[in-house]
Amino acid sequence: MIRDQIQAAIAEAMAAAQADGQLPPFDLPAIEVLRPKQAEHGDYSTNVAMVAAAAVRKSGGSANPRAIAEAIASHVPADGPIGQVDIAGPGFINIRLADGWLQQQVAAIVAAGGEFGNIARGHGQRWQVEFVSANPTGPIHYGGARNAALGDALANVLAAAGYDVQREFYVNDAGTQFELFIATLYARYAQLFGRDEPVPVDGYAGEYMVDYAKKIAARFGERFLAMPKAQALTELREIGEDIVLTALQQELGSLGVHFDSWFREQSLYDDKLVEKALDLLRTQGDLIDKEGAVWFRATNYPKSDKDEVVIRSNGAPTYLASDIAYHYDKFIRRRFDQVINVWAVDHQGHVARMHTVMQALGLDPARLTILLYGLVKLIRDGQEVKLSKRRGNLLTIRDVVEEVGADAVRFNLLTRGPESTIEFDLDLAEQQTNDNPVFYVQYSHARICSILAKAAEVGFDTAAPIDHAELALLSHPSELALMRKLLELEEQIELAVEKLSPHNLTHYAIDLAKIFNAFYRDCHVVDPANPAQSRARLALCQATKIGLVKTLGLLGVSAPESM
Q1: How far apart are CA 453 and CA 445, in angstroms?
Q2: pTM metric for this prediction
């Protein structure tokens, strides 16, 4: 990255200043290179002179940070990306990128194409992002769309940073809620044939349960009424689950979300993994029998103040038993280097428990990240839309996607960090105006496509405008500002990885679109009377198009060519 090149140049300058005696010998400190908050201070800045002052004093040199900064600055090479070096305040070293180097980066962006912005951070480490993971008991209410958008975009970002990423949906098909679902499904199925079969208490009242039952009736007729109810419930488990998972795949697909793996909780019991993981804990003294139940001795580990039941007194396992086996499978059997579980904020009480489980399995808790996200308030006509799967007044992901489009859903749900509550205004999301951020960004991309099409009509080679472009002609402040913004993408991807949140990319996309539109306002792009200038500006348009497509793609948002 550019920042790393500048960091290396500063280190070389400090070593050179020591070599010629302007600075005394001392171990070089860590060099932090940041972007200044104010553009007039340059593109990058470092406070290394102030950090080094104490070490310089100990080595017998002048501890004046400004003098140290001047010694360093005098040895910074004025070539490559570095254009101008200035000293500010008590000893900040401010660096401005060279115009000539910026101009050549247009060609580098075009050459990189879809790889533009990618960074070498992960080096092929195997990371898993597990997200959505709803009970297979019906459609996902709209609140789950944030989980889906966040997990999927984060996986995109990690892949762009060089990680080998797997997306996984954990299917909770071994718990009480799934049993209630099957019982409700049987009742709705029986009612279709006139049977007086009541929906169980706390069952699922949604109309979608009738739709599921109709699918079974159409396929199997009265088959399940001709057998004992217990046998029917057993046979309906797999059939009902397949119906729901097929619907979930279609529903999440409407949002552009697809999984590499759908991992069924029941397989942990079928493959004896729960038994194996619990046997491991018992062998090392982390399970005890108490009050007729089996307990995980979490208090054997730091920061845990209570033990947890894993097998109830009636012999039924708790969710914790499954979680222990599931993470045993993730880390020990499948050998993921890192796992990110995307959970709603109401699960925050389980985070510490899972880190204790990691310790009990002999694993570094830092390898498991529980990414918690805040609630979504869906607003229509100024009022919050309430959601409930059980009561049947369910507004699903598919419903909202059909109303405002997948792009608006994803972009809006990624505009804030995971911990923040989001208010998603459906009325605004439908507007095709610049007030709608996703429309604004997508329209900017469509504008570039229109510019390139217009240029082709008057004879410019828009298939490869970079081939004959004199990039040195790109010297207008708006052109240089656009190049600078494009080159931020690597750092934006790195920031998203560090924060494990892609929300900064939505703001970067908006800023990039704004700066492009300022360039379009200030610079006449297609001018047959000035072909050399036009070719250079068309090349910059092509580079910007690549930048917008890449950023929107990371967010899982499309880049339409016309709007």
Answers
A1: 13
A2: 0.94
